[in-house]
Amino acid sequence: MNLEDPLKKHFRLLPPQEKALKKMGVEKIQDLLYYFPSRYSNTTESRAVKNINKGDDVTLFGKLRDLKIGKTFKGKVSKSSAIFYDDTSEIQVTWFNQPYIVKMIGENNLVKLSGKVSGYKDRLTMNNPKTEQVSYLPVATGESLFGKDAVSTIYPVYPESRGITSNWIYHAIQKVFKSGLLDNINDPIPEHILKTYSLPTLKTSLIWVHSPQKENDALSARKRFAFEEIFFLQLKRQLYRKTRNKKQSFKIQTAQHLVKKFTDRFAFELTASQKQSIGDILEDFKSGKPMARLLEGDVGSGKTAVAATTVYSVTMTPPDKTKNFGRLQTAYMVPTEILAKQQFENFISFFEHMNINIGLITGSGCYKFPSKIDPKKATKISRPQLLKWVANGEIPILVGTHALIQKSVNFKNLAYVIIDEQHRFGTMQRQMLARKDDFIPHLLSMTATPIPRTLALTIYGDLDLSLLNEMPAGRKPIITQIVTPHKRQETYELIREELNKGRQAYIICPRIDEPDPTKEMAIMAKSVKAEAKRIEDVVFPEFTVDIMHSKMKPQEKEDAMKRFEKGETKILVSTSVVEVGVNVPNATMIIIEGAERFGLAQLHQLRGRVIRSNHQAYAFVFSDTESQKSIDRLKALQTAKNGFELAEFDLQFRGTGDLYGKKQWGVSDLGMEAIRNIKMVEAARNEAHNLVEEDPTLKKYPAIKESLVNKKEVHLE
Q1: What is the per-residue pLDDT across 192-207, written as a single tens digit (0 to 9) for each?
Q2: Distance between first and last Cα of the chain
Q3: Burial of 310 (C-beta count, 10 Å sphere; 0-12/13-18/19+)
Q4: Above 70 in pLDDT, residue 484?
Q5: Comparing C-alpha atoms, which of 477, 475, 476, 478 is closest to residue 269?
Q6: pLDDT tens across 144-159, in order?
Q7: Which CATH class is domain 256-287+302-447?
Q8: Does a cis peptide bond (omega within 30 degrees of 0) precede residue 370?
Q9: DSSP state of 569
Q10: Distance CA 225, CA 714 (A)
Q11: Which residue has the higher pLDDT, 124 or 626?
């Protein structure tokens, strides 16, 4: 048996089982070993048969006798049956469509049954209980069961899928253990690191995580695997950074008085953190080494102004005639067309006083500023024409969506790449914007998503960090109100007062259409379409209402946003599609329906849409729950000073479940739990950094090198 062997080589799999395992990401022996239990149950929770009653959910330990295989009375369904017994009494057990149970267990072997007790003709029965052969018994009270000493132990419970039970996974892993595979397994973490942090070896950890004798065994194993995941994430980032730093980039230097002249045109005074971030980036530009920096700033903190100032420096750097570079170019990539068009317009406002061409490329069309007909406006142009101008360097600033990284887009002198809302793009996507020669463009990633420090250290280990931790002068703190059902009407009146003053409002709903009551009884959340009609007909009939959601065509969304931006629409009912980047300064109110369905970080992102002016902003967090726990959680929106504090709150007090975008980051749930531990993250980061500095080719660490190629993400629900 080998780690890379497919499961079907060693296990007889039925087609439904093979399909289920593939869906679970378990196709090789290694995948199976890294499919960890979601929890552990303790055998001390078991019951004696004489103490159970009809309707009880129970766990029983005992033996089986009188095993039979047959059919139901109509002969269409297979049926296995047996008598389950312990020293106290017995119970009839039946399994439907599970003929393998009888063959698998056998007479008088120790088993554990879990399920609901039912009754039939004055006899207690259990139908289709989860059945597992065991080698242990729970501690008995009074006489020991079956005349032998029993032990107290815990057993693993694995995430299941249709066709694959926790019991199947347990026995499959035990079969791997019995094969002796673990005797020759290589531990990728060096021995000196294991000793430094008192971590068990890989062999020990695999045994402890799947067959712990005591709770501390499982905890130690999970700690080791959490460290391993963060360690390898850090290694990948550090190796990428090391490789990147060997390359050259463009040496960009702009006179300080020219930069100040550019920023003096802004309609606002730069904050201290904006000035610091601009200074850090311009300093990186001077080195001639490729910059790799993350600009993290709360919603409304002025990241675009920082980006525009640094783009100005790149664009105005004199061409290096000896290398025939021509004018240097910037690519600015964003996740949505709405945001791309908005940032295109922002850059026009920043650069319209200068003779600079700015391009826009999205899936639905291309634009160029300035237009030959009207130098104060942009014009729609053909895609081939835009690509030609980008390729010959005539367009130094190109804003776009994923369309920027298509093979047909070729830059002449790409010197600077800016990625907005970094968490929505993977490392490979940002690497696709790199040049094909030895020159690598400078990279600035930006995000307004609140990210705890430990997560930033882990996910962006190859990036330097700049933080915008203050708001522009004059911005009033947003007033956030948690609105329970009985306060809904008085809140509508407050909103009406603001609308009558000329302000505008967003209403966010969790879904687009009303649910089909025959199919989705459990998810009766408010929908955009139904809520828009109710708002227009019943709540605010005197104001214009429009809708926006992800299923609309790009042109329809653009038209809806234009009407809202112009003030033609007073209330925009939308899904969370407005969450990123939408900027309408006159919209000062946001209602979030079904707020308990959103993570705190996402709620913070949504309310950031109304912190765009010096008018007082309001966020009305509507909750339909009566749960005090849910209400208390939402109240964190009122007490946290900023998004970063909010993210730390979620991380420390609620765990990682609500951290927005975690699937995008490629970290398992076990890894995300590890990120709560700043000491572990820093330890893994330091060890990875030291190892790469000592041996960048990993010649001394072949096991690590092999693992980096074959490493699988930990599977844990």
Answers
A1: 999 999 999 999 999 9
A2: 27
A3: buried
A4: yes
A5: 475
A6: 444 444 444 677 888 8
A7: alpha beta
A8: yes
A9: -
A10: 8
A11: 124
Residue 339, pLDDT above cutoff 80: yes
pLDDT, tens digit (0-9, with 9 covering 90-100), for 259-299: 999 999 998 899 999 999 999 999 999 988 899 898 988 77
Sign of CA dihedral 362, 368, 373, 375: positive
Partners of 28 in beta bridges = 6
How does 524-546 read in b/e, with b if 16+ C-beta sit within 10 Å? eebbbebbbeebbeebbeebebb
- Radius of gyration of the chain measured on its C-alpha atoms: 31
Q: What percentage of the chain's residues is helix, strand, coil (to nearest 5)?
A: 40, 20, 40
Q: Give residue 714's pLDDT band: very low, low, confident or very high (50, 70, 90).
A: very low
Q: φ, ψ for residue 180 (rounded to 5)?
A: 85, 5
Residues 483, 491 contacting (CB under 8 angstroms): yes
Q: How far apart are CA 257 and CA 658, in angstroms?
A: 45
- What is the spatial distance between Cα 7 and Cα 19, in angstroms, rounded to a whole number? 12
- What mean pLDDT is reported for the chain? 82
Residue with the two structure tokens 């899928």:
161
pLDDT attached to residue 667: 65
Is residue 292 classed exposed, middle or buried when 0-12, 13-18 and 19+ CB atoms within 10 A define those classes? buried
CATH of domain 479-641: 3.40.50.300
Between 198-202, 390-394, 662-666, the lowest mean confidence (pLDDT) is in 662-666
Cβ neighbour number for residue 149 with a 10 Å cutoff: 9
**What residue ranges do the domains of the chain occupy?**
1-38+158-185, 41-154, 256-287+302-447, 479-641
Q: In sequence order, what are the residues at sequence separation of 6 or more whose Cβ sits closer than 8 angstroms to the Cβ of residue 228?
A: 188, 189
CB neighbours of 540 closer than 8 A, spacing ≥ 6?
Answer: 492, 495, 496, 499, 570, 571
State whether CATH 2.40.50.140 applies to domain 41-154: yes
Q: How far apart are the C-alpha atoms of 63 and 134, rounded to whole Å? A: 10
The answer to whether the 41-154 and 479-641 domains have the same CATH topology is no
Q: What is the pLDDT of residues 16-44, one digit of tens each?
A: 888 999 999 899 999 999 999 988 876 55
Q: Does the pTM exceed 0.90?
A: no
Q: Provide the 8-state DSSP code for 267.
A: S
pLDDT of residue 320: 59
Q: How many CB atoms lie within 10 A of CB 89?
A: 14
User: What pLDDT was estimated at residue 429?
Assistant: 53
**Residue whose entry in the numeric block shows the structure tokens 């056998």:** 106
Strand arrangement, sheet containing 365-369: 379-381, 365-369, 358-362, 397-400, 329-333, 414-420, 442-447, 292-297, 464-468
What residue type is 107 in one-letter code? E
566-575 average pLDDT score: 92
Return d(Cα 572, Cα 338) in angstroms, integer.
15
Which candidate, 171, 169, 80, places its Cα nearest to that of 126?
80
The answer to whether 442 and 250 are in contact (CB under 8 A) is yes
pLDDT confidence band for 312 (50 / 70 / 90): very high
